[in-house]
Design a protein that fits this description.
alpha/beta, three-stranded mixed beta sheet, 11 helices
């Protein structure tokens, strides 16, 4: 990508802050907008951005932006585009970091001015922490980056989004439709968070914290959760997530039945199946 171009990050949270950190570190000019003055001040102190705004008129910053990245929750993204999208200059390329796509991509494309192209994407690199002060903890290298174009996107915009992912340091870049993305994310991300949260909420066994091993820590790491963000993501993708919860419940019920029946062979077969399937996810 051309280093003479200017990026504007709208939403300097965990991922928006990481984008700003990486892009500025690679020599790009980066601007920032956030509702939290502390986030803007932090980004300025760390030289993540050269200019920032927390409140007030965004038009002067938008006038400078060649590329805009939305680091916002879905509802906030739609509200921002409704209020300020008309200020974007024709020729601006826009993307996001949102964890759901249906209900987001087409409304944003509908509301942006002619000549402004929104090519949605999802860096699957979130953590159990939140906020720009934790951005340095995020590691893009082992993470997946998903581009979710529609028929309204140009090949040039898809290529730009792929270049952006490579510049940020993502090694694995895929292209899915918004619907395919949300089906996938319902299983590999949202169901995992639902299981971790349910496990921690099932019983108050905090007195066992001193005795836990790696299996419990690994399984429940993501139960330390950003409540506002994940409640929104769950509700925006609830049809897919409910289907995945039902599938998981059926599998857990099958395991329970085998336990109750002293069916050792049945249990061992489930364990062999899980081992075979897990191999596909092992990172090389």
């Amino acid at each position: 990508m051309d280093r003479s171009k200017t990026f504007l990050i709208v939403g300097l949270g965990l991922l928006g802050g990481k984008y700003a950190q990486v892009l500025s570190g690679k020599g790009y000019r980066v601007l920032g907008i956030d509702t939290d003055p502390d986030a803007v001040a932090y980004a300025r102190r760390r030289d993540y951005i050269v200019e920032g705004l927390a409140g007030g008129d965004p038009a002067p910053l938008l006038a400078q932006a060649d590329y805009v990245i939305f680091g916002l929750y879905p509802t906030a993204l739609l509200q921002w585009v409704e209020a300020c999208g008309h200020l974007l200059r024709p020729g601006t390329l826009v993307t996001d970091v949102s964890g759901v796509k249906r209900g987001v991509v087409e409304p944003v494309q509908d509301r942006l001015p002619q000549g402004v192209e929104f090519i949605a994407s999802h860096p699957m690199a979130g953590r159990e922490t939140s906020g720009i002060t934790h951005s340095a903890e995020v590691d893009f290298a082992p993470a997946n980056f998903i581009i979710t174009p529609t028929a309204r996107n140009t090949p040039a915009a898809v290529d730009w989004c792929r270049d952006l992912a490579q510049t940020l340091g993502f090694a694995r870049i895929s292209v899915l439709s918004p619907a395919e993305h949300d089906r996938m994310i319902g299983y590999v991300s949202q169901l995992c968070h639902a299981i971790a949260v349910s496990l921690m909420c099932a019983s108050d066994n905090t007195e066992l914290a001193r005795y836990t091993g790696d299996s419990f820590r690994d399984l429940t790491r993501i139960a330390r959760i950003n409540d506002k963000m994940w409640a929104e993501l769950f509700l925006w993708n609830k049809d897919n997530l409910i289907g995945e919860i039902d599938m998981f419940s059926a599998a857990l019920g099958s395991l329970r039945e085998k336990l109750a029946a002293d069916d050792r062979e049945g249990l061992e077969e489930m364990f062999r199946l899980s081992t075979r399937r897990r191999q596909a996810f092992d990172k090389k």
